[in-house]
Structures are given as C-alpha cells and as structure tokens.
Amino acid sequence: xTKTPAITAYDAQPMRDRVVLITGGAQGIGRGIAQxxxxxxxxxxxxxxxxxxxxxxxxxxxxxPRAAFRTLDVARETSVKRWVDAALAQFGHLDGLxxxxxxxxxxxxxLHELSLKTWNRYLDTNLTGAFLCSKHALPSLVAAxxxxxxxxxxxxxxxxxxTEAYAASKGGLVALTHAMAVSAGPAVRVNAILPGWIAxxxxxxxxxxxxxxxxxxxxxxxxxxxxxxxxxxGNLAVYLLSTASGFVxxxxxxxxxxMTVKMQYV
Length: 266
Ligand SMILES: NC(=O)c1ccc[n+]([C@@H]2O[C@H](COP(=O)([O-])OP(=O)(O)OC[C@H]3O[C@@H](n4cnc5c(N)ncnc54)[C@H](O)[C@@H]3O)[C@@H](O)[C@H]2O)c1
Hints:
By secondary structure, this protein is of the alpha/beta class. The chain is built from seven helices and seven strands. It has one domain (19-259): NAD(P)-binding Rossmann-like Domain (Rossmann fold), CATH 3.40.50.
C-alpha cells in the first residue's frame, strides 16, 4: 500500500547556515529584515551608505561572526563588486540577496519641475542598484541555489500626485523581478515585496532614532487596524529566502495592511 507523505514539523530556524546580503540593511526595513534573518538562524552581510548606522547594528546585536557590515553605494558598480567580494571572503558562500536600499521619499514635486538629475538619482539607487547587486551576487547565488528578494513598494501599483521618479523606479523593480526569475531559474528564485506604510522611525541610527508619532486615524484606516513595522516585512522576506518557498518565484507580494484593496470614493 502507498504511504501518504508524513507531517513535517515547522522549521523555526529556516535560515540556519544561510548567508544573506542586505542592501540598505543598517536602518529601517532593511534592518528589520536583517533581524528577522538573524532570528531565523541565518547570517547577514549589511551594506549601507550610513556607516554609523551599520556599526550601531553590529554593536547592538552582539551577533558575533553571524553579522558583518561594509559601506556600500548600490549605484556604483565598483562599490557593489567590492561589497559582494568582501561578503564571499568573510562567509565563503552566499544564499540570499535582499535589494532593499532606496531613496524612500516619494514626493519630488510637479513633473514639469522634476530635474533629470533627480529622476536619474531615484532610478540609479532604487532600480539600477538592484540590477548591479543581483549581477554581482548571481554566480554565488547560483552555486548555492539561493534566492533574491526585491523591496519595491505599493507605489509600483498606485500613486499620489508628484511621485513619478519613485513610482517608476518601483514599477521597474517589479518588472526586473519577473525578468530575473525567468532568467535565473531554476537555480535562483526571485520575488518582490511591495510594502505599504511602514513606520521606521525607531529603526534608524541611534542619533536620529525616535518613537513614531502615529495617530489613531493613521492606524484605523488600515483594514488590518495598524500601520506596518519592519518586522512585518522581515517575516515575509525570511519565507521568500528560505526553502519553504521553493515553488514561489517571479511574484510580488503586497504587505500593506489591506490599503490597496480598500475601495475609496470621496
Ligand atoms: N517605509 C516605508 O513606508 C516604505 C514603503 C514602501 C517601500 N519602501 C522601500 O523600502 C526600502 C527601505 O525603506 P526604509 O523606509 O526602510 O528607508 P530608510 O531610509 O529607513 O532606510 C534606507 C536605507 O538605505 C540606505 N541607502 C540609501 N541609499 C543607498 C545607496 N545608494 N547605497 C546603499 N545604501 C543606501 C540608507 O542609508 C538607509 O539606511 C526602500 O527601497 C523604500 O523605497 C519603504
């Protein structure tokens, strides 16, 4: 008689022995993802423009050899290559990449006043940065059978006025996600997370860190009843980086407390 598959226990340490590169990992959502990976038993290589924030993470976590930091500008290819090489030298293998670094400030004023310089700055950091990091990490990720997670935004799907550069960069990131998933599979899976409103004030470097000032209305407008936290994004990132999501690739996942499914007519 054929036996039915057995019930397997839930793995509380799905990132055990896995090394994850996280861009913009020293603050905000990136720091939340790093803490989730560490909590799930993994190791992290942070890269960030803000060296003080990176050093503060290592000091505060006390994670020993499981956490490393190196200054990184995702928009500069030489910087990206040096960062990936440093991670390989330290850890010996790479199992995940989270393209999170971004200029998280959508409003740049009216389109007819938007300079080409500003437009290029958004595209260089938010989109080209993900391309460069993926390009240089890919050979190691292929060797390990790894995964890439791109942090886009619900602004890839919907907009407020005067946010063209940011919205275009995040829409591009969603397209880059399915393109890379098709090219890099089956060795490497590629998915995107589209966060909604995530309060990051308490996740900054020690000099600028503060408790978020959020009103009852801020929370209540969300079908989930609250504004999001970096942990909300970290939890999904761990799933997408781990083998538990082995049949999931090329997808984008909205994590916004239900805001984008709420019909609004004023
Ligand atoms: N917070 C939100 O509500 C929200 C919502 C949707 C999407 N996002 C996206 O999530 C990501 C993280 O946003 P956040 O709110 O945590 O922002 P944040 O400003 O708190 O953190 C971003 C980090 O990226 C770093 N960084 C910026 N440019 C860089 C570069 N060129 N190279 C390396 N590091 C760089 C910054 O120093 C910072 O530590 C961004 O891509 C953002 O667009 C945020």
